[in-house]
Amino acid sequence: MLFHSTRGNDSGRTFEEVLMQGLANDGGLFMPDNWPQVDLEHLKSLNSFLDIAKHIVPLFTKSSFSDDEVLNILDKTWHDFGKDNLAEIHQLDDSKYVLELFHGPTAAFKDFGLQLAAAFFNQSLKRQSKTAVVLGATSGDTGSAAIDACKRFDSIKSFILLPDGNMSEVQRRQMTTVDSPNVFTLRVNGSFDDCQAIVKKAFSERSFLKDDQFLLAVNSINWVRIIGQICYYFYASLKITNYNEPLNFSVPTGNFGNVFACYSAHKMGMPLK
Ligand SMILES: *Cc1c(COP(=O)(O)O)cnc(C)c1O
To answer: For the whole model, what pTM was predicted?
Structure first.
């Protein structure tokens, strides 16, 4: 299964190309050519988040990585979560549950997607003998989760731009107290939009990159984040109804990435109301 651009002028792209490039050449977003279907009966027999991820992630990666390679990566992907199953399901009453996605190291759901992206970045860089610069603008959650996910990989240097103000003190500290030589947090004398403008300019110019360096995007355009998020919708459905009843999900949204992962899970066979 390959990927194509929503704008129609970039197609036939592999998982690895989508991973390392972020945005399509024609400025569109990448989409899979078709929705891979899960084996729901098989999923019903599973128990843990990791086992579900091991069924789902390989459906997207076959164009670039062998299944064995992916299963090995997944064994080491998610780390420093406060719960063994990464997410917890908290029942409120007969019909309402909270899917707790805040047990990761930065307390944002973004740990699920960005730890997966970082693990695949590292694998791809290793086999190409290259290094990468991660460049991102943040108003809080994305920067913390990206820094935390990438700091363990020597081949990746992270440069995260923060606005001056408009950020919680906890998040400012999450980003500015990381003691790793490959993490650079820069405060910009301006707003989030000013930070974003610098990042966009860098992605269009790229002249500062060395020959063997990738420039990686960690914002919500990166499809690998969506794949990591699809897994927890399947996990919630398994735990709550064993896929026998369609659930409703209420999802807070910004760039539509997280709720799009829910829609994607449905397209792949998860019952959804
Ligand atoms: C990132 C974030 C969002 C927005 O998510 P999208 O995937 O961009 O829609 C909403 N709420 C919280 C707490 C977040 O960290």
So the answer is: 0.96
